[in-house]
Amino acid sequence: MTSKTAQNLHAIAIQTPSLLKGPTPMATPATMMPAPASTATVVKEGWLYKRGEHIKTWRSRYFILKSDGTLDGYKTRPDLKTQAEKSNEFTVRGCQIMSIDRPRPYTFIIRGLQWTTVIERMFHVDDEEERKGWVDAIRSVANKLNEEELYQMDPPLPPDDDCEMGSIAEDELLSEKIPVYGTSTDRISGKMKVTLENFEFLKVLGKGTFGKVILCREKSTAKLYAIKILKKDVIIQKDEVAHTMAENRVLKTTNHPFLISLKYSFQTVDRLCFVMQYVNGGELFFHLSRERIFPEDRTRFYAAEIISALGYLHSHGIIYRDLKLENLLLDKDGHIKIADFGLCKEDITYGRTTKTFCGTPEYLAPEVLEDNDYGHAVDWWGTGVVMYEMICGRLPFYNRDHDILFTLILMEEVKFPRNISLNARSLLSGLLVKNPKQRLGGGPDDAKEIMAHPFFASINWTDLVHKRITPPFKPQVTSDTDTRYFDKEFTGESVELTPSDSNGPLGAIQEEPHFSEFSYQDMASTISTPSFINSNYSHHSNNSTHSHHSNHSDRDPSMQ
């Protein structure tokens, strides 16, 4: 909000560090300090119009403000006898409240700080008296909570522990240089820890705001890996701790031939390091850009491997949420490797949902854009989008203006070229259904429903998951160190890693509060291999255990 706009506000601000709960665009909500629900009383309730955070339309919601600061919204007025489903969950603890008469009369804004990001939620009512009633009630609750917190603090501290006071001191200790010397021993187990000193660095594969990806060789084995080195301070400042830790957990615990996997993860005083096996066949985005479209047979092969991998994730309660061509890599033989697990959501089995707005705009499912709860069906929408790109050579919905793009995704029916086969049209139409409950794969059978579609009649799913089907295209790499499918802007750079300013062997350190339980150095996976493929979808039973296939992502959402 500009300073000029701020001058026009009738500001009724509570001058404390503020914190507002709710998902910010492309981010995970910060963890909030819960208030004891048993002692909370209703302060005010009634109908409000709330403007959507992403699609700027006004929606009628019934809101209940309680004495513990919670402000919950419902699509219908809650019945005291039943547990109504919440559409919105906010807190007014430590917020600012501002009255404004645009874009609609009798509007008010609740502004707060989520980690380091200022976010706003906009509401409007029908008259000034109603607005004043809500503003006064919110101000009263927020002031009371602030006074209680200040009273309890001795010496005085900021009103919420969540407000990164710990990270300020921590950031002062973070060096701008990467430590590369020394090894360390776990003080509890006595085992030698992996450090940057264990690797010889060969080429830069990618760079971004959060760090870089480097091709390296492990000195003890001479094996090639790609090491992703991320800056802790940037991860904390940009509120990406939860996404980074989720990616680490998923990499540690999954085991599927078409997913990347992890060799080691460890941390230095100022960096997080993921060591993954190197995959050098290039992004599907690169190959499709060169060829414009793929034949349906080639699309079928890639789609089958993608569906196999996503079905595996779903069967273990993980939704992926960021399917796009840039995250689909090819190994040296031409098999799919799904990369970048930073937006994965765990513990989402069939029937369970989440509501965080995240992903890549062109690939977002309608239910995400509508601020609705969503589940595993979002990944099948993404599958439909990437398959459409492969077969048709363009996105099903596109506009440079994101507001127009989102409207197209929500309202426009998908159109197909004349030369597409009936089975392909049927499959894509099923995957790109707006209603997730009616979408192909949206039911309890998940991937099996898609695998049974006539488009995949020629696929033996057991042979596929065992890599017994020859890929339709083999990348033209001449050696393991061939980086022709990586950007020459990066691969031509020299790799310079300098010691940390800190003293001592800090190649690896003990776990820190933000990144506890990060380190990992065992290829064994805690999740079994695919269990969702059965004889209904292949010529042979698929009960055997598959070998562990490791690979590497050269890009992730944080690196772009």
UniProtKB/TrEMBL annotation:
Broad enzyme group: transferase
GO molecular function, one term: ATP binding
PROSITE patterns, sorted: AGC_KINASE_CTER, PH_DOMAIN, PROTEIN_KINASE_ATP, PROTEIN_KINASE_DOM, PROTEIN_KINASE_ST
UniProt cross-references to SMART domains, sorted A to Z: PH (SM00233), S_TK_X (SM00133), S_TKc (SM00220)
Domain PH per the UniProt entry, residue ranges: 41-143
Binding site for ATP: K228
Protein kinase domain segment(s): 199-456
Every AGC-kinase C-terminal domain range: 457-530
Region spans: Disordered: 534-560
Pfam family, one: Pkinase
Biased composition (Basic and acidic residues): 551-560
GO biological process: insulin receptor signaling pathway; regulation of synaptic assembly at neuromuscular junction
Catalytic activity annotation: L-threonyl-[protein] + ATP = O-phospho-L-threonyl-[protein] + ADP + H(+); L-seryl-[protein] + ATP = O-phospho-L-seryl-[protein] + ADP + H(+)
InterPro entries recorded: AGC-kinase_C, Kinase-like_dom_sf, PH-like_dom_sf, PH_domain, PH_PKB, Pkinase_C, Prot_kinase_dom, Protein_kinase_ATP_BS
Biased amino acid composition, Low complexity: 534-545
Keywords recorded for this protein, A-Z: ATP-binding, Developmental protein, Kinase, Nucleotide-binding, Phosphoprotein, Serine/threonine-protein kinase, Transferase
EC number: 2.7.11.1
Family: Belongs to the protein kinase superfamily. AGC Ser/Thr protein kinase family. RAC subfamily.
Name the UniProt record assigns to this protein: non-specific serine/threonine protein kinase
Organism (species): Anopheles atroparvus (European mosquito)
